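Section 3.1: Structural characterization of target chains.
Under the original work plan, the team committed to producing a structural model for every single-chain target entering the pipeline before any wet-lab resources were allocated. The record below documents one such target. The sequence was received from the expression subgroup and is listed exactly as submitted; it comprises 309 residues.
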Amino acid sequence: MSDKPSWTERLFGGFKKTSERLTENLTEVVGTARLDDATLDDVEDALILSDLGPTAAARIREALREKRFGLQITERELKEAVAEEIAAILRPVAKPLEITAFPRPQVVLVIGVNGSGKTTTIAKLAHLFQEDDYAVMLAAGDTFRAAAIGQLATWAERIDVPIVRGPEGGDPASIVFDAVKKATDIGTDVLIVDTAGRLQNKRELMDELAKIRKVLGRLNPEAPHDVVLVLDATNGQNALSQIDVFKEVAGVTGLVMTKLDGTARGGVLVQAAQLYGLPIHAIGVGEKIDDLRPFDPDLVARVIAGVAE
């Protein structure tokens, strides 16, 4: 029986398409072997074709021009240089979710459109916190879909954490109120709240989140401590437009990128970092409970550029 693949191997799988596309495009570029304007144009095009976006591509091109212009460059050196510039974009946004709230609990609102992997991500985040010996509670605040309540309850049972839930169609704010009271009473470190993923009616979503915030504020003026947006990487540009909308309606404080499963547009991660500068807390490469990890910018940059060992 083969050993379970390492996290680096799983990342390679997750960023496979992005990495292959970029590597292929960069390999074609290096035929000239000298970094002149024409080669830099080709490098920039290669980066855009690999979903890194025009802003990040222009920034990387400029950095390569400053450091390497006119020099002979091998394919490996070019990839290493690109990896370093991607890492420079990603490092400032790599921030794990840290539990610092006092008094406890730290309240983490998790938002995202239906189908983004939100509910599973909540379970995986809870598991990460458990691994750091934090006591976790879940709140089923997405009351519009019985399936969402049921799915979260199943995960809660599986990872052995308490859950506060109400009936389908119930008031999310009152569920959150009950959950914060209960978490405070038993000294829970982290309360992770699922929320509705409807974007069809922004006003309704805005009102609902405002109501949840009001309730939280009465119990703890600091809450919610985090508003985490879950993005499905396979959505490409659409994932970026979701950041725009949710920043406006929900005051997003950080991102989790899911479904980096080989079909994904992994370069979108670099675009999100370059365009929004929001903390990226974690990335997910599969369905299993340990397939979500804190975001490592250097490793991801090297995997995208095809030079990770």
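The first helix runs from residue 7 to 14.
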